[in-house]
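Supplementary Methods. Inverse-folding protocol.

Structures were first reduced to a discrete structure-token string of length 606. This string, shown here, constituted the complete conditioning input.
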């Protein structure tokens, strides 16, 4: 989950590295560091804490040079500190490495190296790689890296540089993401494309089990075994402005406000007289063969999958299961050849989701990826891909990607329903029209900012907040609770509304905040009865409900209104006021909204 950036060319390496790290800080911000080659030596500067601390040190003592590597860390082995920050050196100081991932056998390697006389300066697993590269060096950095990674097991990306070969960087990918940016007389390395969009839009994707040998003239890619790889560059469609705040105080708020356009873009040309989806060649040819859909994901993507399960069963009449990827991969799922595995990941690099998707394919399922990143690992491994076109999402707390995931699954459910003959043409047209109207309805919610802001003031002092809902509203409640936990650090718990009285009601006392999502008409009366029970305990009720729902005002202290839509699509709109509520609570408390503690955007380790 750490961020890596590298550069070889004619610019100031320090400037390029710091700019790239700024774009990658969402991947980890426990510490940061850079190494720059100059005059036959490699100088390293690093600092615990946010990137600004590193920048301050570099301003006091700049590092001259035209080649370097940088890193922003999310700690796995060793506490955040200056000495545990990357880059890490070998004993001579001639070799430096940065690393994203985990070396699973680092303890055995460290014991071996210490027995040979190597003295370690950090607690990290990464430092063993620096010493291994140095130990295997015999005049060729690429071969030293090849031998080093042959000794190290795990999932990681490694980038190495040595003072003995200035102007050369060697990188290896073992699952964790890595891209090469191609410029004129300069070449870049990064964990993610946005890191170097200021300089180039042409990229080579480094695949698992490959080594990239980088100089200012480009990159040669080969397999770990040494076989050359020919690969055409891809062109990034994003521009640098897409990863700037654009006048908003936080990326999260900017990304919330981008959601009407994201919905419009995800619908795109897919909305005609009937839903038309590209990239679904297998599903299109065999819709009746899909006996069950296995949805696997983590975090926010898992909550999107909970919505998808209901949509697939309700609109396409296909049984569906949702499983956390980290649980599915170690379970014994009854996945068969007639199963469709839907793996959901914004980045397409989530380690547990990738592993679960591979398990599903091993059991014979076809793999459909729902992802935001073209060329990601998940997209490349899938049989079919449905892109959500949310654009770069920088805030750790996902908003617009979540909404796009819901839209993508809504389209897929409509398409499958028609293809399987269980959804009439008139029903499809009616629901498609509802989808087409969602961008304008989402925009109207964003014009009502005072409601979430006022309610946030009441919630900021709470010790615990409970989120409830039924059916699709329960999935929305779970996502609302997660958003609040992520960025405000207030304990929040979501559950089906009917479960409240089976235990948790014991914790509801006078003033306890209960956030209720109330949009599903078939259980509307049941929700009102449940809220009466909550009010009888003198709780404070905050409801998310349709703007024409008059009854909800009789039991709720505060109501956040959304435009009415077809109930299957209400989660797309209902999530927005909950995102704004979490944002304003966190802001009221002075939290670091875009970079909440202990979290990172892309979870590329198990």
């Amino acid at each position: 989950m750490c961020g890596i950036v590298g550069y070889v060319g004619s610019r100031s390496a320090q400037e390029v590295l710091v700019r790239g790290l700024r774009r990658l800080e969402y991947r980890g911000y426990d510490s940061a560091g850079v190494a720059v080659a100059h005059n036959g030596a490699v100088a390293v500067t690093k600092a615990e804490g946010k990137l600004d601390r590193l920048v301050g040190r570099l301003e006091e003592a700049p590092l001259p040079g035209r080649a370097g590597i940088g890193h922003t860390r999310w700690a796995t082995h060793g506490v955040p500190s200056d000495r545990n920050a990357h880059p890490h050196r070998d004993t001579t100081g001639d070799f430096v490495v940065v690393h994203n991932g985990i070396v699973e056998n680092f303890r055995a390697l460290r014991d071996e190296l210490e027995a040979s006389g190597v003295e370690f300066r950090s607690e990290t697993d990464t430092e063993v790689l620096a010493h291994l590269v140095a130990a295997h060096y015999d005049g060729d950095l690429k071969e030293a890296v090849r031998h080093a990674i042959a000794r190290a097991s795990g999932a990681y990306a490694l980038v190495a540089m040595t003072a003995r070969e200035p102007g050369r960087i060697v990188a290896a990918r073992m699952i964790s993401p890595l891209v090469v940016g191609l410029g004129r007389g300069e070449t870049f390395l990064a964990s993610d494309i946005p890191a170097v969009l200021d300089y180039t839009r042409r990229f080579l994707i480094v695949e698992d089990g490959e080594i990239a040998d980088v100089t200012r003239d480009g990159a040669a890619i080969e397999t770990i075994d040494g076989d050359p790889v020919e690969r055409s560059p891809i062109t990034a469609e994003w521009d640098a402005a897409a990863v700037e705040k654009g006048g908003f105080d936080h990326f999260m708020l900017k990304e919330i406000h981008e959601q009407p356009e994201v919905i419009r873009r995800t619908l795109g040309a897919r909305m005609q007289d009937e839903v038309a989806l590209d990239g679904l060649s297998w599903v299109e040819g065999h819709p009746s063969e899909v006996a069950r859909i296995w949805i696997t994901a983590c975090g926010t993507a898992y909550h999107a999958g909970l919505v998808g399960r209901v949509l697939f069963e309700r609109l396409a009449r296909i049984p569906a299961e949702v499983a956390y990827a980290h649980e599915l991969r170690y379970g014994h799922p009854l996945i068969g050849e007639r199963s469709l595995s839907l793996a959901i990941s914004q980045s397409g690099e989530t380690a547990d989701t990738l592993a679960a998707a591979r398990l599903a394919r091993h059991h014979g399922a076809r793999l459909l990826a729902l992802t935001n990143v073209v060329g990601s690992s998940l997209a490349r491994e899938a049989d079919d891909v449905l892109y959500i076109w949310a654009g770069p999402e920088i805030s750790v707390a996902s908003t617009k990607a979540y909404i796009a995931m819901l839209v993508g699954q809504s389209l897929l459910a409509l398409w499958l329903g028609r293809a399987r003959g269980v959804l009439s043409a008139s029903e499809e047209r009616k629901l498609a029209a509802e989808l087409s109207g969602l961008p304008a309805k989402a925009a109207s919610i964003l014009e009502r900012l005072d409601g979430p802001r006022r309610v946030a003031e009441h919630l900021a002092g709470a010790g615990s907040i409970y989120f409830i809902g039924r059916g699709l509203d329960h999935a929305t409640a779970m996502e609302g609770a997660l958003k609040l936990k992520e960025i405000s650090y207030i304990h929040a718990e979501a559950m089906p509304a009917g479960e409240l009285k089976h235990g948790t009601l014991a914790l509801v006392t006078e003033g306890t905040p209960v956030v209720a999502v109330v949009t599903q008409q078939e259980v509307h009366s049941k929700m009102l009865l449940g809220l009466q029970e909550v009010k009888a305990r003198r709780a404070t009720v905050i409801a998310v409900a349709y703007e024409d729902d008059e009854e909800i005002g009789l039991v709720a202290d505060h109501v956040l209104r959304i435009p009415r839509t077809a109930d299957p699509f209400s989660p797309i709109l209902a999530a927005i006021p909950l995102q704004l509520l979490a944002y304003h609570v966190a802001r009221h408390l002075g939290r670091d909204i875009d970079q909440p503690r202990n979290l990172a955007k892309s979870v590329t380790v198990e």
